[in-house]
């Protein structure tokens, strides 16, 4: 397969290549945004601004909350910064508007009175080392800038960040590593770590700089977020080994606290003949007891549940680490670090690394994982088989059961 050269403009992330298909992609840094004009004047602040005036002091909590507000609203990217109103997003908090590109996004998060550019953000910030990064700081290059969200694993240099990158995706959260060659397109060496001059130091909750240690080796795929204590910590195989017996009573869709308060349930999974559920607010994991016709709480907060013949698994909502349920309430075993996604197929647990660089299979022992494939856009399961997509072409491949052996689905 010949080498492909792709030119990416304006905050566009670099593409990666599916190693199984033996392809390769190179990219050029995105073109820096240059729009200098501002939309209508900023007049006041609101809840996200916590009454902080634009251009004034702002806490790390506020910065991260503002960045996540664009992610939640799926604010689209636009490079036509001077052609309002299509390229300027009205900000309910400040009453102003910001460009919908990478530096406009950071200007909004920092609550600046106007949209700066990658070349002018340094005028309101001080340079720091990469190891000093905290939620709300930025990584800025001549062609792109991202907002640092928090460490996934400080020792390994993995972290998550927020950005506006290209027209194909709205504002979103992504994952990076200080050990990688590139970050969101440009070479990592092109970036400078900057801290806003008027940032106020205070705890940042979810974005707090307190990630637990991640898996070692190619270990569990790493997509994650700092972590308070693991929610009853995510997942482990059911000790009952009861092959698929159906519950004797239909599980209710609402659990109850010890005080009798109803807890709406959001998602359900089955493993080893048992039915499990995650609270709608992700505050706890429950197991259905057919004998007592009620839900039993077996774990604390979790982001997602995964289940199959291999058991019940869950991800920590803060660190992203993957855990296995031991079979005993509130007893979960950490088996790996964060991943972009996990699936259970054929009794085995698989994960895609946070940076999409590899597909991994859990060995079933401690936190040991084996890399079985190169870069992938997504992983999924069907009919007991594992599938992954080529991140460049979108072609679907089926895992043949041995590391790095994949077959294009169309060729099966």
Automatic annotation (TrEMBL):
Signal in keyword set? yes
Enumerate composition-biased segments (Low complexity). Answer: 207-217
What name goes with this protein?
Answer: NlpC/P60 domain-containing protein
- Look up the signal peptide feature and give its range: 1-32
Query: Region Disordered: start and end of each range?
Result: 204-265
Domain of life, per the record?
Answer: Bacteria
Compositionally biased intervals (Pro residues): 218-246
Source taxonomy: Bacteria, Bacillati, Actinomycetota, Actinomycetes, Kitasatosporales
Q: Does the keyword Signal apply?
A: yes
Looking at the UniProt entry, the stretches that span the membrane are none
What SMART domains does its record include? Answer: TECPR
Write out the entry's keywords from A to Z: Signal
């Amino acid at each position: 397969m010949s080498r492909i050269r792709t030119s990416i403009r304006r905050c566009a992330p670099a593409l990666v290549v599916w190693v199984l298909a033996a392809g390769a992609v190179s990219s050029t840094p995105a073109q820096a945004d240059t729009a200098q004009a501002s939309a209508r004047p900023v007049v006041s602040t609101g809840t996200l601004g916590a009454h902080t005036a634009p251009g004034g002091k702002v806490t790390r909590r506020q910065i991260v909350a503002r960045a996540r507000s664009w992610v939640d609203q799926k604010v689209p990217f636009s490079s036509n910064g001077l052609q309002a109103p299509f390229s300027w997003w009205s900000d309910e908090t400040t009453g102003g508007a910001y460009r919908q590109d990478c530096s406009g996004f950071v200007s909004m998060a920092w609550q600046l009175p106007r949209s700066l550019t990658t070349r002018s953000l340094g005028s309101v910030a001080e340079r720091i080392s990469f190891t000093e990064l905290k939620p709300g700081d930025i990584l800025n290059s001549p062609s792109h800038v991202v907002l640092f969200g928090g460490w996934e694993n400080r020792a390994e240099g993995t972290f998550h960040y927020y950005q506006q990158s290209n027209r194909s995706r709205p504002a979103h959260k992504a994952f990076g590593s200080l050990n990688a060659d590139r970050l969101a397109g440009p070479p990592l060496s092109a970036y400078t770590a900057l801290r806003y001059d008027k940032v106020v130091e205070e705890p940042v909750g979810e974005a707090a700089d307190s990630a637990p240690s991640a898996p070692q080796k190619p270990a569990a795929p790493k997509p994650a977020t700092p972590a308070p204590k693991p929610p009853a910590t995510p997942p482990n195989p059911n000790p009952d080994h009861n092959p698929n017996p159906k519950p004797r009573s239909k599980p209710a869709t609402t659990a109850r606290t010890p005080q009798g308060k109803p807890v709406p349930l959001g998602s359900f999974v089955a493993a080893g003949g048992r039915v499990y559920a995650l609270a709608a607010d992700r505050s706890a994991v429950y197991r259905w007891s057919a004998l007592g016709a009620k839900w039993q709480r077996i774990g604390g907060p979790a982001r997602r549940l995964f289940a199959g013949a291999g058991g019940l698994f869950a991800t920590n909502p803060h660190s992203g680490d993957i855990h296995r349920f031991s079979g005993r309430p509130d007893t979960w075993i950490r088996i790996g670090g964060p991943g972009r996604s996990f699936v259970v197929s054929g009794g085995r647990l698989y994960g895609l690394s946070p940076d999409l660089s590899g597909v991994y299979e859990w060995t079933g022992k401690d936190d040991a994982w084996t890399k079985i494939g190169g870069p992938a856009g997504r992983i999924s399961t069907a009919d007991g088989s594992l599938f992954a997509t080529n991140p460049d072409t979108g072609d679907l491949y089926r895992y043949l059961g041995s590391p790095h052996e994949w077959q294009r689905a169309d060729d099966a």
